[in-house]
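Moderator note: this is an archived Q&A kept for reference. The question asked for a predicted structure of one protein chain; the sequence and the answer are reproduced below.
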Amino acid sequence: MESREDLNSILPYLPLVMRSSTLFWPSQVVEALKAMARGPLHSRVDSGELLFLAISDLRHSLSLSNHHFAPSFPQGYALFFDELMSREESTKWFEEVVPALADLLLRFPSLLQTHYQTADIAHINGVNTGLRLLRSQEPGIVFLSQELIGALLGCSLFCLFPVTDRGVEHLPTINFDHLFASLYDNYNEKQENKIRCIIHYFERIFSHMPIGFVSFERKVLPLEHLPQCIPYPKAEFWSNSVIPLCCFEVQNSGLIEDQSSEALEVDFANKFIGGGALHRGCVQEEIRFMINPELIASMLFLPSMADNEAIEIIGAERFSSYTGYASSFHFTGDYVDKKDVDCFGRRKTRIIAIDALCSPRMRQYKQECLLRETNKAFCGFFAQSKYQQYKRLFPENGCSGAQLDQNIEDPIGRSRSNLLSHENASTSDETTEEKSVNQVIRNFEETGCESLGHEDNNVGIVTGNWGCGAFGGDPELKTIIQWLAASQALRPFISYYTFGLDELQNLDQVPRLTNESVSFGNGGR
């Protein structure tokens, strides 16, 4: 274990100790967690105030006392668990959930050790899937069981992750201290309801531990030509493109996360994945991280995104229902996620995080910003599984003039379904980590899945007003940018949710352009 590059990259950011190839908790932590696992009659942890004291003891045993947390964290814990929770909710939390969480944390070292052992066995096409720091400009994928994610989020709730060096690696917040401190510092209902989503997640997993998996991928358009990669396109690539526009669907009502198509759902992301999810933020990205809390695990090991990067997460389960947005956000109860599962044990929920320019004002109409935004969306929308098909269409790796091979029929004269037909279709349609991974391996062998990133041709894009609102982008411009990027990425459709924005009230007139060839220059005007 000591020689593993993946483990060594993330170990400084974990609360565990490694010695003689074994991961473990310090003995004082083990004893404290064992006491909590036996219930409040033994541990005397039966209130938010006492839970905070128990957490403080755990942090002291981990030498985290000098890793300062938000000043109002203890008051926030006491406010939520002792005042905002009903007596019935509080009793269930301290008598059932906290002991189960302590037990899961006791198993965290063995879960993580098993994760690395099975990651070696489950290498798919030679791809490393072990938990590690996925640094900027280093494309890669991490494949975690939902049970292991539960343990990681338990560490976040108890604020057990070391934080001193996270800023050096441009990593976002991971502990929950600011989430609770904000509740006390400036109480509002949306912050309480964000926390209720998290608490509901823990209640759900300890009533029935999910056995699936979630993958987290850093996608990169390299700034230079590399084998088997599409490089970062230049302006000429877009101005010369003759790829036909994909189908454009307008949704004047509804929400991205409620759509039922086989699609890539856009997260209007901050460059720091999760944005203000663990602070006071409560708009599109933050809400998604609350109702699908497994997304929060990405904040542990994914540093901020550069202009040529995106983050794709497949398999995160939704646990909560809600109403409202921003200050009106309200947790309304349980949500049963009925999405199908792929051959790797992941729910077929594909989320792509792309960060738009913030407050671009008039700059957004200049070529430099147009290129940045279009390439950002293209990075997120393009599937590397289509590389060979793309190479046939664009022999010069798709980014050096973007001239079509003369031996290939002009795509304008072909339907998009024919254009996409060369792509091979996927044939895919115990609570312990090891058993779950073994099942995935068996499924992989039986179904013949090609790769973690392989997609059927029917996976389109579901998006909305990306980079607008608080970010200040022009909704009409962002619509065209995303449509161009989706078309160039060979996606079969883009489904656009307007969220009732006045500027887009005539957007349903746009689909008449479908099947026309619109260049970057024309589309951006």
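Archived answer notes: Confidence is low (pLDDT under 50) at residues 400-415, 419-431.
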